[in-house]
Amino acid sequence: MSDFWLYLQLGLEHITDIQGHDHILFILALIATFSTKDFKYIVWLVTGFTVGHSITLALSTLDIIPINEDFIEMLIPITILIVCLSNLFNTKDPKNQPHYLQRNVPFKRYFFEATIFGLIHGMGFSNYLKSLLGSEESIWEPLLAFNVGLELGQLAIVTVVMFINAIIMGFTSFTQRDWNIFVTGGAFVSALIILIG
């Protein structure tokens, strides 16, 4: 059982490590249009992302799918840029209601998009996990624990961001639209720097 907690902690630390900021940027972009009242939708989106990266993390760790590290490192910031563009240009609501919640655009479509982009990010996690596994006889328990740690870390990031959102919305003249532009703009510029850097 101690191994489970060890890998859970490693997953938690990996997703919250500022050096792995590309994954944090993706989460920030994914939730930028949401406020605290939409927390259940945020959890679903983050869980969709986890489902996606769990699949490819398992497949790549088991050497079932090949990984071109340079190609994946290029794709990850592109996923962030796509979400950012969607945040900025795919809503017509003047109050900046998340387009995920508009009746003519089913939320499940964006859940699946988060899952698909998660597949790409999972391949980005795989080399790190492979280096950790070393000579482990079975990878299933470490793999599960690592993914649970990643999910807990993502939820911790979301909780902190939503807490900041609630404070800013409650004590300043910022609107949710301003928040979206600020967070999405920052994520977009950062992802662009990663891509061309």
Stretches with pLDDT under 50, minimum 5 residues: none
Number of helices: 7
Shape: globular
Helix content: over 70%
Mean pLDDT: 85
Topology order in helix (H) and strand (E) letters: HHHHHHH
Number of strands: 0
Largest sheet features: none
Content-based structural category: mainly alpha
Strand content: under 5%
What radius of gyration results from the CA coordinates? 17 Å
Q: How many individual domains?
A: 1
Distance N to C terminus: 41 Å
Describe this structure in words.
Keywords: Membrane, Transmembrane, Transmembrane helix. This is HupE/UreJ family protein. The chain crosses the membrane at residues 20-36, 43-65, 71-89, 110-129, 149-172, 179-196. The chain has 197 residues and is mostly helical. The chain has one domain. It has helices at 2-16, 21-31, 39-61, 69-89, 107-133, 140-171, 176-196. The longest helix is centred in the C-terminal third of the chain and has 32 residues, at 140-171. It is globular, with a radius of gyration of 17 Å. The mean pLDDT is 85.
